[in-house]
Amino acid sequence: MAERTDGTGAATTEATAAAATGAAMGAAPGPRPVGVRVAARGPAHDLRAVKVVLHREMLRFVNDRTRMASMLLQPVLWLFVMGTGLGSLVKNSIPGVDFRTFMYPGMISMTVIMTGMFSAGSIVWDREFGFLREMLVAPVSRGAIVVGKCLGGALVATGQGVVILAMAGLVGVPYAPSLMLTLLAEMFLAAFTITAFGVTLAARMRNMQTFFGLMQMAIMPMMFLSGAMFPLAGLPSWLHLLTVVNPMTYAVDPMRQAVFAHLDVAPQAEAVLNPGVRWGSFEVPVALEAGLVAALGAVLLGVAIAQFKRAD
Questions:
Q1: pLDDT digits (tens, 9 = 90+) for 55-69
Q2: pTM of the predicted structure, to 2 decimals
Q3: How many CA atoms lie within 13 A of 10 on its CB side?
Q4: In this structure, which of 129, 131, 175, 189 has its CB flanked by the most CB atoms within 10 Å?
């Protein structure tokens, strides 16, 4: 039976008109039509939409074990293979510190960033298979869909980072509760920002190949220039400038400072491995770094919502 919806959200059916015509002609009344009511738009309705999109992102990730394993393999290889190899080269210049301990915050960042970007890329899959169009025509705001995507990607990326967090003891990082909670909060902040960045990129993409190419072009320079794999002390001025303008630097450095605050490291080694970020002679505090990452995440979320509103 075909249905039509009026402007107030209450649905009428063709059976209504047929029943009225039959009554006018003296025929026996037929079955009464069943009314369909569409929920009114509002903050509570959008909040339910955010919850549904977030839940879908979590289910998609949990059911994709291949993706979970592949996302973990790369940072583990970097940490235990590359870290061990590079550590043997620089062990005389940083006595008393395992180079893998230095790389550990960087590998957490890499895990979170890669997972967040892949979560954002699911938008392109949804567009290719037509599911995104179904979400866009649903009676919910497009902003709610974007917020759900970003929160879902951030939670998935943070969950993946927790697995790397569980390996802390293997590289000499203590399982101090305050350190674990600090790293969790910083991981979620970085994950939300990078997922918002990914959603901004993916909002207008038509195929996955283009998105992957653009993602690699954007992510790899940001990772290499963030201090995740080498110390930021003693860099040439041009390279130091690139690290300072790289937003990922302000996501990696707070994690490294949190880790080194719980280690007993000689001042000379800490000056080399954990110099912090400097704007000239001003050392950027961790709170300001976190604020910059949060502000960037808010801006990217706004841009992603604007992009989504323009998408067809």
A1: 888 888 888 778 777
A2: 0.80
A3: 6
A4: 189
